[in-house]
Amino acid sequence: MIFWIGISLMAFAAVGAVAFSLERRSRSRSRLWDEGDVAAPSSEPRGLGRWLSLAGYRRRDAVIWFVGACLGCLSLASLCALVFTGHPFLEMAAFNMLAIPVVGSTLARLVHATPWLLALIITSLPILQVRAQRARLIEETERDLPLVLELLATLAEGGLSFDAAIDRIVQHQAEERPLVAEFEQYQAETRAGGGRIDCLHRLANRLDVTPVTRTITAIAQAEEIGSSIAEVLRPLADELRHRRRERALATAEALPEKLVFPLVVGFLPGLLVWTLGPTLHQLINTVDSIMRGGR
Predict the structure, then answer these.
(1) CA–CA distance, 208 with 199 (Å, rounded to integer)
(2) pTM score, whole prediction
């Protein structure tokens, strides 16, 4: 126990030292660029930073926080596994499971492995959180994109430019939506002097959602050939709505197959016990009486 607590403290100390070093390096680097006459280079995150950025965690210290959360969950999981392994309650539960015929030994092993399964779940909590955040971001982006495209097409048909239409949408939409937040970042980049197509490509790179990438590519091609953006955006919005409808229908059609396993696991054992239980009980009593009579 003391050994694992010491290992946990050492891990926390190592994470704190790395965080302090990286924070000091980032401060000195930002001071260097702020005091100079040149602009700081814009470097895209890579590896773990890229994965966290796609999930919406874009702070400079996001990687440090994630690594610290993983180490903290690992320490907590190790502590829980050591505390609950060999606990009298688990031993009693495993002993009671052995009384169940056929599957008793398997259930007893499962009870003994419960602390380590719990430790595995606790350790993977940060990863599961990031994956869930990424899935939510993709879902919200794909839900908002058709409406945004239709609004852009309508405003473009009304005579507004693309940037003016984006500004109108940002002003009247909720700021916590991921797509609207990316449009705000796009506006900040264009106001800083960036090219429209380059800023749109960076927007698609930050989100990395396939419908958004296809939309940005279509807008870039329309800009290059000089065609109307409204003629490009409205068919894209209709296609996205059609695909969402097809995906919803496919999910609804696959629902009965997905319900087979829960129904078998949940209802079949009870049904077998209810129908065959009395017969098996009588058969066991009959066999037991015959065996005793033979003796």
Answers:
(1) 14
(2) 0.69
Q: What is the rounded CA–CA span in Å between residue 51 and residue 58?
A: 10
DSSP alpha helix (H) spans, the chain: 2-35, 48-54, 62-84, 88-97, 104-112, 114-123, 125-157, 162-171, 178-191, 196-207, 210-225, 229-294
Q: How far is the CA of 271 from the CAs of 107, 266, 281, in angstroms? A: 21, 9, 15
Sequence-distant (6+) residues with CB within 8 A of 217 are 204
Q: How many residues does the chain have?
A: 295
pLDDT at 248 over 50: yes
Residue 228 tokens, joined: 């109307």
For the chain, the straight-line distance linking the first and the last C-alpha, in angstroms and rounded, comes to 55
- Where are the domains positioned within the chain? 1-32+44-84, 86-114, 135-246
Which of 225-238 are b and which e, b meaning 16 or more Cβ less than 10 Å from the residue's Cβ? eeeebbebbbebbe
Any idea what DSSP says for residue 43?
-
Residue 86 — left, alpha, or beta (φ > 0 → left; ψ -120 to 50 → alpha)? left
228 neighbors 156 (Cβ within 8 angstroms): yes
Q: Can you tell me the distance from the alpha carbon of 283 to that of 279, in angstroms, rounded to the nearest whole number? A: 6
Task: Please give the CATH architecture assigned to the domain spanning 135-246.
Answer: Up-down Bundle (1.20)
Q: Is it the case that residue 34 has pLDDT exceeding 50?
A: no
* Whole-number Å distance between alpha carbons of 141 and 137: 6
Residue type, 90: L
pLDDT digits (tens, 9 = 90+) for 249-286: 888 888 888 888 887 777 777 777 777 777 777 877 78
